[in-house]
Amino acid sequence: MTDTFVAQSHILHRAFGQRPENVVSAEGIKLVLESGRTMYDATCGPSVSVLGHHQPKVTEAITRQLKQIAYVYSGARFTAEPNEELASMILGACPGGLSKAIFVNSGSEATDAAIKLATQYWHERGLPNKSHVIARKQSYHGNTIGALNVSGHTSRREIYRDWISENVSFVDPCYAFRLQKADESPNQYLQRLRDQLEAEIIRVGPGNISAFIAETVSGTTLGCLPPVPGYFKAVRELCDKYDILLILDEASYICTDHTIMCGMGKTGTMHAWEQEGIRGPDIQTIGKALGGGFVPLSGVLLHQKIFDALAAGSKGLLHGHTFQAHPIATAAAVAVQKIIKELDLLNNVAKMGKVLEEALEEMIRPLPFVADIRGRGLFWAVEFLADPESGAPFAENAKFCNQVVDAAFENGLNILGNLGVTGDVHVEHVIVAPPYIVSESEIRDI
Ligand code: PLP
Prior knowledge:
Layout: H1 4-8, E1 23-27, E2 30-33, E3 38-41, H2 44-47, H3 56-68, H4 81-91, E4 98-104, H5 107-124, E5 132-136, H6 145-149, H7 154-157, E6 168-171, H8 176-179, H9 186-204, E7 209-215, H10 231-241, E8 245-250, E9 283-286, E10 298-303, H11 304-312, H12 327-342, H13 345-364, E11 370-376, E12 379-384, H14 400-410, E13 413-414, E14 416-422, E15 425-432, H15 440-445
Parallel strand pairs: 3-13, 5-6, 5-7, 7-8, 8-9
Antiparallel strand pairs: 1-2, 2-3, 4-10, 9-10, 11-12, 12-15, 14-15
This protein binds pyridoxal-5'-phosphate.
Pyridoxal-5'-phosphate is lined by residues 46, 106-108, 111, 140-143, 215, 219-220, 249, 251-252, 287, 298.
Protein backbone atom coordinates (compact mmCIF):
# COMPACT_ATOMS: atom_id res chain seq x y z
CA MET A 1 0.00 0.00 0.00
CA THR A 2 1.28 3.47 -0.81
CA ASP A 3 1.47 6.05 1.95
CA THR A 4 -0.62 9.18 1.21
CA PHE A 5 2.28 11.54 1.86
CA VAL A 6 4.54 9.51 -0.42
CA ALA A 7 1.89 9.42 -3.14
CA GLN A 8 1.47 13.21 -3.02
CA SER A 9 5.15 14.12 -2.64
CA HIS A 10 7.01 15.21 -5.76
CA ILE A 11 10.01 13.24 -4.56
CA LEU A 12 10.10 9.63 -5.74
CA HIS A 13 10.69 7.95 -2.40
CA ARG A 14 12.35 4.56 -2.14
CA ALA A 15 9.78 2.72 -0.01
CA PHE A 16 6.27 3.62 -1.11
CA GLY A 17 4.49 2.14 1.90
CA GLN A 18 6.41 4.16 4.44
CA ARG A 19 6.14 7.84 5.25
CA PRO A 20 9.72 9.13 5.59
CA GLU A 21 10.46 11.11 8.74
CA ASN A 22 11.29 14.75 8.08
CA VAL A 23 14.54 15.60 9.86
CA VAL A 24 14.41 19.28 10.81
CA SER A 25 17.72 19.65 12.60
CA ALA A 26 20.50 17.74 14.27
CA GLU A 27 23.17 18.19 16.86
CA GLY A 28 26.09 15.86 17.39
CA ILE A 29 24.81 12.34 17.11
CA LYS A 30 21.09 13.18 17.50
CA LEU A 31 18.50 13.86 14.81
CA VAL A 32 15.47 16.06 15.59
CA LEU A 33 12.34 14.99 13.71
CA GLU A 34 9.41 17.19 12.68
CA SER A 35 7.23 15.24 15.10
CA GLY A 36 9.42 16.56 17.92
CA ARG A 37 11.09 13.17 18.54
CA THR A 38 14.84 12.96 18.78
CA MET A 39 16.76 9.89 17.57
CA TYR A 40 20.24 8.55 17.96
CA ASP A 41 21.83 8.24 14.53
CA ALA A 42 23.90 5.22 15.47
CA THR A 43 25.25 4.54 11.99
CA CYS A 44 25.96 8.09 10.77
CA GLY A 45 23.57 7.37 7.89
CA PRO A 46 25.40 4.56 6.12
CA SER A 47 28.75 5.29 7.84
CA VAL A 48 28.93 8.81 6.51
CA SER A 49 28.48 11.56 9.13
CA VAL A 50 31.52 10.58 11.16
CA LEU A 51 31.89 14.01 12.80
CA GLY A 52 28.24 14.17 13.79
CA HIS A 53 25.76 16.42 12.07
CA HIS A 54 27.09 19.87 12.81
CA GLN A 55 30.65 21.19 12.58
CA PRO A 56 31.13 24.98 12.50
CA LYS A 57 34.62 24.67 10.96
CA VAL A 58 33.25 22.72 8.00
CA THR A 59 30.48 25.30 7.58
CA GLU A 60 33.16 28.01 7.61
CA ALA A 61 35.29 26.18 5.04
CA ILE A 62 32.31 25.73 2.72
CA THR A 63 31.29 29.40 3.10
CA ARG A 64 34.85 30.59 2.47
CA GLN A 65 35.08 28.50 -0.68
CA LEU A 66 31.66 29.72 -1.87
CA LYS A 67 32.86 33.30 -1.58
CA GLN A 68 36.16 32.55 -3.31
CA ILE A 69 35.08 30.36 -6.20
CA ALA A 70 32.07 28.03 -6.03
CA TYR A 71 32.60 25.97 -9.15
CA VAL A 72 35.17 25.35 -11.80
CA TYR A 73 34.94 22.69 -14.44
CA SER A 74 37.78 20.42 -13.41
CA GLY A 75 37.52 18.46 -16.64
CA ALA A 76 40.21 20.25 -18.56
CA ARG A 77 41.78 23.65 -18.00
CA PHE A 78 40.95 24.42 -14.39
CA THR A 79 41.60 23.24 -10.91
CA ALA A 80 41.01 24.84 -7.50
CA GLU A 81 43.07 25.04 -4.35
CA PRO A 82 41.08 22.61 -2.16
CA ASN A 83 41.14 19.95 -4.89
CA GLU A 84 44.92 19.95 -4.89
CA GLU A 85 45.10 20.19 -1.09
CA LEU A 86 42.78 17.23 -0.52
CA ALA A 87 44.64 15.03 -3.02
CA SER A 88 47.94 15.89 -1.32
CA MET A 89 46.49 15.13 2.12
CA ILE A 90 45.31 11.72 1.01
CA LEU A 91 48.24 10.76 -1.17
CA GLY A 92 51.11 12.72 0.36
CA ALA A 93 52.08 10.05 2.85
CA CYS A 94 50.62 7.13 0.98
CA PRO A 95 52.76 4.01 0.72
CA GLY A 96 52.50 1.61 -2.17
CA GLY A 97 52.83 4.04 -5.06
CA LEU A 98 49.29 5.44 -5.20
CA SER A 99 50.03 8.88 -6.53
CA LYS A 100 47.03 10.47 -8.29
CA ALA A 101 43.39 11.05 -7.39
CA ILE A 102 40.15 11.58 -9.26
CA PHE A 103 37.29 13.07 -7.22
CA VAL A 104 33.71 12.17 -8.11
CA ASN A 105 30.36 12.41 -6.38
CA SER A 106 29.44 8.89 -5.28
CA GLY A 107 30.90 5.47 -4.59
CA SER A 108 29.15 4.05 -7.65
CA GLU A 109 30.76 6.67 -9.87
CA ALA A 110 34.09 5.80 -8.27
CA THR A 111 33.61 2.12 -9.17
CA ASP A 112 32.69 3.03 -12.75
CA ALA A 113 35.75 5.28 -13.00
CA ALA A 114 38.00 2.54 -11.59
CA ILE A 115 36.77 -0.05 -14.11
CA LYS A 116 37.11 2.43 -16.99
CA LEU A 117 40.55 3.49 -15.86
CA ALA A 118 41.69 -0.15 -15.78
CA THR A 119 40.31 -0.67 -19.28
CA GLN A 120 42.03 2.44 -20.59
CA TYR A 121 45.30 1.36 -18.97
CA TRP A 122 45.38 -1.91 -20.95
CA HIS A 123 44.43 -0.13 -24.17
CA GLU A 124 47.27 2.33 -23.71
CA ARG A 125 49.62 -0.60 -23.17
CA GLY A 126 48.50 -2.17 -26.44
CA LEU A 127 46.57 -5.00 -24.77
CA PRO A 128 42.92 -4.17 -25.54
CA ASN A 129 41.78 -7.77 -25.00
CA LYS A 130 42.41 -7.41 -21.29
CA SER A 131 38.90 -6.27 -20.38
CA HIS A 132 37.32 -9.05 -18.27
CA VAL A 133 36.81 -8.29 -14.56
CA ILE A 134 36.76 -10.91 -11.82
CA ALA A 135 34.67 -9.83 -8.83
CA ARG A 136 33.30 -11.59 -5.77
CA LYS A 137 29.91 -13.03 -4.94
CA GLN A 138 27.98 -11.17 -2.20
CA SER A 139 29.88 -7.99 -2.99
CA TYR A 140 28.51 -4.49 -3.44
CA HIS A 141 30.27 -1.85 -5.48
CA GLY A 142 27.39 0.49 -6.25
CA ASN A 143 24.10 0.97 -8.02
CA THR A 144 24.89 2.42 -11.44
CA ILE A 145 24.78 -0.07 -14.30
CA GLY A 146 28.58 -0.15 -14.44
CA ALA A 147 28.94 -0.77 -10.72
CA LEU A 148 26.13 -3.34 -10.66
CA ASN A 149 27.95 -5.28 -13.34
CA VAL A 150 30.79 -6.00 -10.93
CA SER A 151 28.60 -6.39 -7.84
CA GLY A 152 27.73 -9.89 -6.66
CA HIS A 153 24.58 -8.69 -4.94
CA THR A 154 22.25 -10.74 -7.12
CA SER A 155 18.91 -9.36 -5.92
CA ARG A 156 19.96 -5.82 -6.87
CA ARG A 157 20.93 -7.03 -10.36
CA GLU A 158 18.01 -9.33 -11.06
CA ILE A 159 15.71 -7.20 -13.26
CA TYR A 160 18.60 -5.48 -15.05
CA ARG A 161 20.08 -8.72 -16.38
CA ASP A 162 19.85 -7.56 -20.01
CA TRP A 163 22.26 -4.79 -19.07
CA ILE A 164 24.65 -7.07 -17.27
CA SER A 165 27.86 -7.96 -19.08
CA GLU A 166 29.18 -11.48 -19.50
CA ASN A 167 32.62 -9.99 -19.30
CA VAL A 168 32.50 -10.22 -15.50
CA SER A 169 32.75 -13.41 -13.46
CA PHE A 170 32.55 -14.09 -9.74
CA VAL A 171 34.49 -16.05 -7.15
CA ASP A 172 33.65 -16.65 -3.48
CA PRO A 173 34.11 -13.86 -0.94
CA CYS A 174 36.36 -14.32 2.07
CA TYR A 175 33.63 -15.14 4.58
CA ALA A 176 34.98 -17.71 7.01
CA PHE A 177 32.04 -17.41 9.41
CA ARG A 178 29.65 -18.97 6.90
CA LEU A 179 31.78 -20.49 4.17
CA GLN A 180 34.75 -22.12 5.89
CA LYS A 181 33.97 -25.85 6.09
CA ALA A 182 33.83 -27.57 9.47
CA ASP A 183 36.79 -29.82 8.61
CA GLU A 184 38.91 -26.98 7.16
CA SER A 185 41.66 -25.10 9.01
CA PRO A 186 41.95 -21.33 8.35
CA ASN A 187 44.97 -22.07 6.13
CA GLN A 188 43.11 -24.70 4.14
CA TYR A 189 40.21 -22.27 3.70
CA LEU A 190 42.60 -19.61 2.49
CA GLN A 191 44.22 -22.07 0.09
CA ARG A 192 40.80 -23.03 -1.30
CA LEU A 193 39.97 -19.36 -1.98
CA ARG A 194 43.37 -18.87 -3.63
CA ASP A 195 42.97 -21.98 -5.78
CA GLN A 196 39.49 -20.94 -6.82
CA LEU A 197 40.67 -17.50 -7.92
CA GLU A 198 43.63 -18.99 -9.79
CA ALA A 199 41.38 -21.53 -11.53
CA GLU A 200 39.08 -18.69 -12.64
CA ILE A 201 42.02 -16.66 -13.96
CA ILE A 202 43.19 -19.68 -15.98
CA ARG A 203 39.67 -20.42 -17.22
CA VAL A 204 39.18 -16.87 -18.53
CA GLY A 205 42.79 -16.53 -19.64
CA PRO A 206 45.11 -13.90 -18.11
CA GLY A 207 45.42 -12.24 -21.52
CA ASN A 208 41.71 -11.37 -21.31
CA ILE A 209 41.59 -10.11 -17.73
CA SER A 210 41.79 -6.46 -16.77
CA ALA A 211 41.26 -6.53 -13.01
CA PHE A 212 40.15 -8.27 -9.85
CA ILE A 213 37.90 -6.08 -7.68
CA ALA A 214 37.09 -6.57 -3.99
CA GLU A 215 36.07 -4.60 -0.91
CA THR A 216 39.01 -4.66 1.52
CA VAL A 217 36.57 -4.92 4.43
CA SER A 218 33.14 -5.95 3.18
CA GLY A 219 30.59 -3.37 4.23
CA THR A 220 27.12 -3.35 2.77
CA THR A 221 26.28 -6.96 1.97
CA LEU A 222 28.34 -9.01 4.39
CA GLY A 223 28.51 -6.46 7.22
CA CYS A 224 31.82 -5.18 8.59
CA LEU A 225 33.64 -8.31 7.50
CA PRO A 226 37.43 -8.13 7.61
CA PRO A 227 39.39 -10.62 5.48
CA VAL A 228 41.07 -13.71 6.89
CA PRO A 229 44.74 -12.81 7.54
CA GLY A 230 46.77 -13.60 4.43
CA TYR A 231 43.83 -13.38 2.02
CA PHE A 232 44.88 -10.18 0.26
CA LYS A 233 48.51 -11.30 0.21
CA ALA A 234 47.40 -14.31 -1.82
CA VAL A 235 45.21 -12.12 -4.04
CA ARG A 236 48.03 -9.61 -4.63
CA GLU A 237 50.45 -12.43 -5.54
CA LEU A 238 48.02 -13.89 -8.06
CA CYS A 239 47.37 -10.47 -9.62
CA ASP A 240 51.13 -9.97 -9.97
CA LYS A 241 51.72 -13.48 -11.31
CA TYR A 242 49.13 -13.07 -14.08
CA ASP A 243 49.53 -9.33 -14.71
CA ILE A 244 46.05 -8.34 -13.53
CA LEU A 245 45.22 -5.03 -11.84
CA LEU A 246 44.01 -5.15 -8.23
CA ILE A 247 41.15 -2.74 -7.51
CA LEU A 248 40.29 -2.35 -3.82
CA ASP A 249 36.96 -0.73 -3.06
CA GLU A 250 37.20 1.17 0.20
CA ALA A 251 34.24 3.40 -0.62
CA SER A 252 31.90 1.69 1.78
CA TYR A 253 32.84 2.96 5.12
CA ILE A 254 35.89 4.89 5.87
CA CYS A 255 38.66 6.41 3.96
CA THR A 256 41.94 8.13 4.49
CA ASP A 257 42.52 8.52 8.23
CA HIS A 258 39.19 6.90 8.99
CA THR A 259 40.47 3.44 8.20
CA ILE A 260 41.38 3.15 11.86
CA MET A 261 37.86 1.79 12.02
CA CYS A 262 39.09 -1.33 10.27
CA GLY A 263 42.39 -1.18 12.00
CA MET A 264 42.13 -3.48 14.98
CA GLY A 265 42.63 -0.53 17.32
CA LYS A 266 46.16 0.08 16.10
CA THR A 267 47.26 3.59 15.36
CA GLY A 268 45.50 4.70 12.23
CA THR A 269 46.67 3.73 8.82
CA MET A 270 45.56 5.77 5.88
CA HIS A 271 44.00 2.81 4.07
CA ALA A 272 42.49 -0.48 5.23
CA TRP A 273 44.73 -2.51 2.89
CA GLU A 274 47.83 -1.29 4.76
CA GLN A 275 46.93 -3.78 7.47
CA GLU A 276 46.93 -6.67 5.01
CA GLY A 277 50.70 -6.68 4.51
CA ILE A 278 50.52 -5.96 0.79
CA ARG A 279 52.27 -3.31 -1.25
CA GLY A 280 48.88 -1.84 -2.12
CA PRO A 281 46.28 -1.93 -4.86
CA ASP A 282 46.75 -0.55 -8.36
CA ILE A 283 43.48 1.34 -8.09
CA GLN A 284 41.49 2.18 -4.97
CA THR A 285 38.13 3.79 -4.40
CA ILE A 286 37.27 5.93 -1.38
CA GLY A 287 33.96 7.49 -0.42
CA LYS A 288 31.22 7.95 2.14
CA ALA A 289 32.98 9.50 5.15
CA LEU A 290 35.45 11.42 2.98
CA GLY A 291 33.21 14.50 3.08
CA GLY A 292 31.74 13.66 6.49
CA GLY A 293 28.25 13.82 4.99
CA PHE A 294 28.49 17.60 4.65
CA VAL A 295 28.94 17.16 0.91
CA PRO A 296 28.70 14.28 -1.56
CA LEU A 297 32.23 13.16 -2.37
CA SER A 298 34.05 10.00 -3.42
CA GLY A 299 37.27 9.32 -5.21
CA VAL A 300 39.60 7.01 -7.09
CA LEU A 301 43.28 6.69 -6.24
CA LEU A 302 45.63 5.27 -8.81
CA HIS A 303 49.12 3.89 -8.93
CA GLN A 304 51.89 5.82 -10.61
CA LYS A 305 52.25 3.01 -13.19
CA ILE A 306 48.74 3.70 -14.45
CA PHE A 307 49.49 7.39 -14.79
CA ASP A 308 52.78 6.56 -16.55
CA ALA A 309 51.01 4.35 -19.10
CA LEU A 310 48.45 7.06 -19.88
CA ALA A 311 51.16 9.73 -19.95
CA ALA A 312 53.22 7.68 -22.42
CA GLY A 313 50.13 7.00 -24.53
CA SER A 314 47.13 9.21 -25.17
CA LYS A 315 48.12 11.76 -22.50
CA GLY A 316 44.65 12.07 -21.10
CA LEU A 317 41.85 10.48 -19.15
CA LEU A 318 38.93 9.07 -21.12
CA HIS A 319 36.55 9.74 -18.26
CA GLY A 320 35.00 12.74 -16.56
CA HIS A 321 31.93 14.32 -15.03
CA THR A 322 30.52 17.85 -15.00
CA PHE A 323 30.78 18.00 -11.22
CA GLN A 324 34.00 16.09 -10.68
CA ALA A 325 36.30 17.58 -8.04
CA HIS A 326 33.73 20.19 -7.04
CA PRO A 327 35.63 22.78 -4.95
CA ILE A 328 32.88 23.11 -2.32
CA ALA A 329 33.04 19.35 -1.73
CA THR A 330 36.82 19.19 -1.59
CA ALA A 331 36.99 22.27 0.69
CA ALA A 332 34.59 20.57 3.10
CA ALA A 333 36.60 17.33 2.97
CA VAL A 334 39.85 19.16 3.74
CA ALA A 335 38.15 20.67 6.80
CA VAL A 336 36.84 17.23 7.86
CA GLN A 337 40.35 15.75 7.67
CA LYS A 338 41.81 18.64 9.68
CA ILE A 339 39.18 18.29 12.43
CA ILE A 340 39.91 14.56 12.76
CA LYS A 341 43.57 15.40 13.37
CA GLU A 342 43.01 18.45 15.60
CA LEU A 343 40.59 16.64 17.91
CA ASP A 344 42.66 13.43 17.87
CA LEU A 345 39.48 11.59 16.98
CA LEU A 346 41.23 8.40 15.95
CA ASN A 347 42.11 7.93 19.58
CA ASN A 348 38.46 8.29 20.48
CA VAL A 349 37.58 5.72 17.82
CA ALA A 350 39.99 3.21 19.39
CA LYS A 351 38.75 3.92 22.93
CA MET A 352 35.03 4.05 22.16
CA GLY A 353 35.39 1.07 19.84
CA LYS A 354 36.42 -1.03 22.83
CA VAL A 355 33.43 0.26 24.82
CA LEU A 356 31.09 -0.58 21.92
CA GLU A 357 32.57 -4.05 21.48
CA GLU A 358 32.18 -4.81 25.19
CA ALA A 359 28.62 -3.47 25.27
CA LEU A 360 27.63 -5.59 22.25
CA GLU A 361 29.19 -8.69 23.77
CA GLU A 362 27.53 -8.09 27.12
CA MET A 363 24.08 -6.99 25.99
CA ILE A 364 23.54 -8.40 22.51
CA ARG A 365 25.47 -11.68 22.39
CA PRO A 366 23.07 -13.50 24.78
CA LEU A 367 19.98 -12.60 22.71
CA PRO A 368 18.19 -15.13 20.50
CA PHE A 369 19.19 -15.35 16.81
CA VAL A 370 22.50 -13.53 17.42
CA ALA A 371 25.09 -15.59 15.55
CA ASP A 372 28.13 -13.37 15.09
CA ILE A 373 29.33 -10.01 16.36
CA ARG A 374 32.20 -8.62 14.31
CA GLY A 375 33.89 -5.37 13.44
CA ARG A 376 36.73 -3.06 14.19
CA GLY A 377 36.94 0.33 15.84
CA LEU A 378 33.50 1.93 15.68
CA PHE A 379 32.30 -0.22 12.76
CA TRP A 380 30.34 -3.24 13.99
CA ALA A 381 27.82 -5.71 12.66
CA VAL A 382 25.58 -8.26 14.33
CA GLU A 383 24.69 -11.19 12.09
CA PHE A 384 21.55 -13.24 12.75
CA LEU A 385 20.75 -16.85 11.98
CA ALA A 386 17.45 -18.66 12.46
CA ASP A 387 19.38 -21.19 14.54
CA PRO A 388 22.86 -20.07 15.57
CA GLU A 389 23.52 -23.48 17.15
CA SER A 390 23.15 -25.47 13.95
CA GLY A 391 24.11 -22.57 11.66
CA ALA A 392 20.74 -22.66 9.90
CA PRO A 393 19.98 -19.35 8.12
CA PHE A 394 16.63 -17.59 7.93
CA ALA A 395 14.36 -18.31 4.99
CA GLU A 396 14.87 -15.88 2.11
CA ASN A 397 11.77 -13.85 2.90
CA ALA A 398 12.18 -13.78 6.69
CA LYS A 399 13.49 -10.19 6.73
CA PHE A 400 14.41 -10.59 10.38
CA CYS A 401 16.96 -7.77 10.29
CA ASN A 402 14.23 -5.41 9.06
CA GLN A 403 12.21 -6.25 12.16
CA VAL A 404 15.23 -5.44 14.33
CA VAL A 405 15.75 -2.12 12.53
CA ASP A 406 12.05 -1.22 12.87
CA ALA A 407 12.02 -2.05 16.58
CA ALA A 408 15.17 0.04 17.11
CA PHE A 409 13.57 2.92 15.21
CA GLU A 410 10.48 2.79 17.43
CA ASN A 411 12.85 3.07 20.39
CA GLY A 412 14.62 6.14 19.04
CA LEU A 413 17.62 4.43 17.46
CA ASN A 414 18.64 4.55 13.82
CA ILE A 415 20.71 1.53 12.75
CA LEU A 416 21.21 -0.06 9.35
CA GLY A 417 19.91 -3.46 8.38
CA ASN A 418 21.01 -5.55 5.48
CA LEU A 419 19.10 -8.30 3.94
CA GLY A 420 21.62 -10.04 1.78
CA VAL A 421 19.53 -12.12 -0.59
CA THR A 422 22.63 -12.75 -2.58
CA GLY A 423 22.43 -16.03 -4.36
CA ASP A 424 23.77 -19.04 -2.53
CA VAL A 425 24.16 -17.34 0.87
CA HIS A 426 21.33 -15.55 2.64
CA VAL A 427 22.78 -12.96 5.03
CA GLU A 428 20.92 -10.92 7.65
CA HIS A 429 22.76 -8.39 9.75
CA VAL A 430 22.54 -4.93 11.31
CA ILE A 431 25.32 -2.37 11.48
CA VAL A 432 26.09 -0.05 14.38
CA ALA A 433 28.69 2.57 13.49
CA PRO A 434 28.48 5.69 15.65
CA PRO A 435 30.49 8.79 14.76
CA TYR A 436 34.04 9.41 15.96
CA ILE A 437 32.78 12.04 18.41
CA VAL A 438 30.59 9.57 20.29
CA SER A 439 30.88 9.51 24.09
CA GLU A 440 30.80 6.54 26.44
CA SER A 441 27.37 7.45 27.81
CA GLU A 442 25.98 7.77 24.26
CA ILE A 443 27.31 4.29 23.43
CA ARG A 444 25.60 2.90 26.55
CA ASP A 445 22.33 4.62 25.47
CA ILE A 446 22.64 3.13 21.99
N1 PLP B 1 31.27 0.58 -2.95
C1 PLP B 1 31.00 0.08 -1.75
C2 PLP B 1 31.95 -0.88 -1.13
C3 PLP B 1 29.82 0.45 -1.07
O1 PLP B 1 29.53 -0.08 0.11
C4 PLP B 1 28.94 1.38 -1.69
C5 PLP B 1 27.71 1.83 -1.01
O2 PLP B 1 27.28 1.35 -0.01
C6 PLP B 1 29.27 1.86 -2.96
C7 PLP B 1 30.44 1.45 -3.55
C8 PLP B 1 28.35 2.80 -3.66
O3 PLP B 1 28.41 4.05 -3.11
P1 PLP B 1 27.29 5.14 -3.42
O4 PLP B 1 26.05 4.69 -2.71
O5 PLP B 1 27.85 6.41 -2.87
O6 PLP B 1 27.09 5.19 -4.90
